[in-house]
Amino acid sequence: KSGSDIILTNSFGANSSRLKLHNLENDVNKLNFEAANLAKKAIVNNKDNLIVAGSIGPTGELFEPLGNLNKEEAISIFSKQSEFLFKGGVDIFWIETMSSLEEVEAAVLAVKKFKLPIICTMSFDTARKTMMGVNPIEFKKFAYDFKLDGYGANCGVGPAELLDTVCDFNLEKSDKIPVV
Fold this sequence. Notes:
The structure is a single chain. It is globular, with a radius of gyration of 16 Å. Helices cover about 35% and strands about 15% of the residues. By secondary structure, it is an alpha/beta fold. The protein has helices at about 15-20, 30-40, 70-90, 100-110, 135-145, 160-165, and strands spanning about 5-10, 50-55, 90-100, 120, 150-155. Helix 2 (about 30-40) packs across helix 3. The model has no long low-confidence stretch (mean pLDDT about 90). A five-stranded parallel sheet has the order 1-2-3-4-5.
């Protein structure tokens, strides 16, 4: 009713890695299905073109060699979450607040099989880099290489820094992927 065109599911931290912190790692299927289902129900009486985006946040784990997470495990974690967001009826996948390209890649590979649009954002700090050192230009290249439907920045330290980061994407009229 506020004029939104897209609403996100409440599934940002609903992957097994994050849910394990609350002893809920076995509830991934149910929580993600219900998150999508509730979002779909919430828009029933709203405009027809309202989009439900399945929110997928980071695992909270570091990739090898800094941590114990590897690509196959990350893909598995994101696959289970995305499967039940899809079954719950999301229209697009919204991979958000990532800090490493390895984790973004794992999430993108996990959701591609559903053939829904994919939007991805990373979180940048005052140095215009993610916690793992990715800069906006590297992320833009990734977005084009993986044929994302949209990319952008979120969170970070504040609106001014976020605007600086978006400007660092070096947007051109010929860019084919929308920045969110």
